[in-house]
Design a protein that fits this description.
The complex is a heterodimer of chains A (211) and B (390).
Chain A lengths: L14 H7 L7 E5 L5 H9 L3 E6 L2 H9 L3 E4 L2 H4 L8 E7 L8 H11 E9 L4 H10 L23 H10 L2 E9 L13 H6 L2 E8 L1
Parallel strand pairs in A: 1-2, 1-4, 2-3, 4-5
Antiparallel strand pairs in A: 5-7, 6-7
Chain B lengths: L4 H4 L12 E5 L5 E2 L5 E2 L2 E8 L9 E5 L25 E2 L4 E2 L4 E5 L31 H14 L7 E5 L1 H12 L6 E5 L7 H16 L8 H4 L4 H15 L2 H7 L19 H16 L2 H13 L20 E7 L7 H13 L3 E7 L13 H17 L4
Parallel strand pairs in B: 5-8, 5-9, 6-7, 9-10, 10-11, 11-12
Antiparallel strand pairs in B: 1-4, 2-3, 4-8
Classes of the chains: A alpha/beta (211), B alpha/beta (390).
């Protein structure tokens, strides 16, 4: 695994989104799954001239995106990826969403099928604060990146970086780049086996291809 | 409708005394129809708004629905009312005529100046009536293509329409993808459902049951089957609204009275409203045209022309799409519109899909719906920017 320290964000884009943007080549055909209000997509269209589409669960967000001139459809990562042809996108982005899908393994398979490159970011449940929180309080951790209490969280499939590495391996994916982010946007040099990142990163971004 | 009896006995008006602009296509340019028949000569009546730029790149074709016509954004010559899409088309509006050159043509089979069943059959010298060949949505689009060619427009910036207009937008994108930079089908479907065919059949039977219809040859008598057409319009109009909107607007309120009349007068406001809708419609619409155009919609099944797979209609398309539906539209419900969006995804096309919250039913696309206009502005703005249109 080739751990990369992200360059400081050049724009007002959220640090994790800026790190994702850095992985996308100029003019690529991109699908942003769970594109929210379209902040990343708009940035990519304007700064990297991508041919960008979005898939978003909230109809209100979809309507806002389209009114901003973005191409976005209302849809669900769990059910709607099957309709896309194989290899149709240069890059498929799943940002802070995989932990909220019903079938992360199936979703990852679909991502690798429809995109030549896949970017997945997620909150790291292996972070020391999460581990310490559970150890000390004996209750489900609530942290800066995981702000929901257990009974109202959309995050039904939280995982650690180590869990994700094993998922990628099982899904036939290959990791091209991996970026570990701390909550305040800083990053540290981390051992290539991911053990250190699993303890110290609040979230992680992976650039994958099919093996 | 007893109070309106004299109105219905009025002789049929010559269709489209003031059709706006017209283009004629002679025998050297016949319209070859899906039925295999050839229609020639033909006239296409249309209106334009705004100015075509030097690059001829800012043209938008607006396609009208079943009961619409070319008067999208100008006063209707028969009713004197504002254009049917006055909310959306005009200077500074979502389809901005300060920026875009907007074309709207009466469909083939229509009755506002384009060749249709009320036109004269050159072979007989008489009104076509049921001698007019059946036309399809694709035939309508073929006729529009002749117009666009004649206007010297290589590529339309967008084809936009709601309901039957949305069917035309889909057909344009499927038949002539290189001529359509973007398409905005609104409140529509890639095929007419059994329920929709059923409603149309009720309307057609109402017209045919009118003794004045005379097997379609009412032009000879000069008496229009207005009662039948009015009933068809009344039934159809219910399908354009929603239960919630009817309840909100009319409820059980009485019309011009304080108590029930214990008779069959229009006691309720909703009855009076529907009668008014029926009565005013017959002033501007030809009964045979209503038969032909409803039939064209019934026959529409875009996937059927592509081996039953809708995505194949759009395979390899570079057209940008924006599909729009309304939550309370039960005539062309969200699911039908979403089916189009799914097919476009499967074809790898560039697509947006927007569902707009509204309780106004199918008619919402014709009304003041700011979210629709926001969607249009964003979608057309992005298309214009990509085509370097200021």
């Amino acid at each position: 695994m080739n751990i990369v320290v992200p360059a400081p964000a050049k724009s007002a884009l959220r640090p994790d989104l800026a790190a994702i943007a850095d992985m996308i080549p100029q003019g690529a055909k991109v699908l942003d799954i769970g594109c929210g209000d379209g902040q990343l997509l708009e940035h990519l269209v304007h700064t990297r001239e991508v041919d960008g589409c979005g898939l978003e669960l909230s109809q209100q967000n979809v309507n806002q995106c389209v009114a901003r001139g973005l191409s976005v459809v209302h849809g669900d990562a769990d059910t709607d990826l099957g309709e896309y042809p194989s290899g149709i996108f240069d890059t498929v982005i799943l940002s802070q969403t995989i932990q909220a899908t019903r079938q992360p393994r199936v979703v990852l398979h679909e991502l690798l099928r429809i995109g030549r490159h896949v970017i997945v970011s997620f909150p790291n449940f292996g972070h020391w604060r999460v581990r310490l929180g559970l150890l000390v309080s004996g209750r489900m951790p609530v942290t800066r990146t995981l702000g929901h209490s257990w009974d109202d969280t959309p995050n039904i499939h939280l995982c650690t970086i180590a869990d994700f590495l094993s998922l990628v391996n099982g899904a036939g994916g290959r990791i091209e780049r991996a970026v570990a982010l701390t909550g305040n946007g800083r990053s540290r040099r981390i051992a290539a086996n991911g053990w250190g990142a699993n303890l110290l990163a609040e979230s992680a971004i992976f650039l994958l291809t099919e093996r | 409708m007893t109070d309106a009896q004299p109105r219905f006995l009025r002789p049929l008006k010559a269709p489209a005394e003031n059709p706006g602009r017209t283009l004629s296509f002679g025998p050297e340019q016949p319209l070859v129809l899906d039925s295999g028949k050839r229609l020639s000569p033909i006239i296409i009546a249309y209106m334009t708004y705004g100015r075509l730029n030097a690059a001829r790149s800012n043209a938008i074709l607006v396609c009208h629905a079943l009961s619409g016509d070319q008067f999208a954004a100008s006063t209707h010559p028969v009713t004197g009312k504002p254009g049917w899409w006055d909310y959306a088309v005009g200077p500074g509006k979502a389809i901005d005529t300060d920026r875009f050159f907007v074309i709207c043509a009466n469909v083939i089979g229509g009755c506002m100046g384009t060749t249709g069943p009320a036109s004269i059959d050159p072979e007989t010298g008489q009104t076509f009536g049921l001698g007019f060949p059946l036309v399809t949505i694709r035939d309508m689009v073929r006729a529009q293509l002749m117009l666009i060619d004649a206007l010297g427009i290589e590529q339309l910036l967008s084809v936009i329409g709601g309901s039957m207009g949305g069917m035309q937008a889909l057909q344009w994108a499927a038949s002539y993808p290189e001529r359509v930079y973007s398409a905005m089908p609104i409140a529509t479907a890639a095929r007419h459902s059994a329920q929709n065919i059923a409603f149309h059949e009720v309307g057609r039977q109402a017209i045919m049951a009118d003794p004045n219809w005379r097997g379609g040859d009412y032009a000879l008598s000069g008496i229009h089957p207005s009662k039948g057409l009015a009933v068809a319009r009344m039934a159809a109009h219910i399908t354009y609204l929603s239960e919630a909107a009817l309840q909100r607007k009319f409820g059980r309120q009485l019309h011009d009275r304080n108590a029930l009349s214990f008779g069959f007068d229009a006691d309720f406001q909703i009855e009076s409203y529907l009668r008014h809708q029926g009565m005013t419609f017959v002033d501007r619409f030809d009964a045979n045209s209503y038969l032909y155009i409803t039939r064209a919609m019934d026959y529409f099944d875009l996937a059927a022309d592509y081996g039953g797979v809708l995505a194949e209609a759009f395979r390899g398309s570079n057209t940008r799409f924006c599909i729009v539906s309304f939550t309370s539209d039960w005539l062309f419900p969200t699911i039908e519109n979403k089916r189009i969006a799914h097919a476009l995804n499967a074809a790898g096309a560039n697509v947006s899909f927007v569902e707009i919250e509204s309780d106004r039913g199918h008619d919402a696309f014709l009304l003041d719906e700011p979210e629709l206009f926001g969607t249009m502005t964003g979608f057309l703005g992005a298309a214009a920017a990509a085509r370097n249109i200021r």
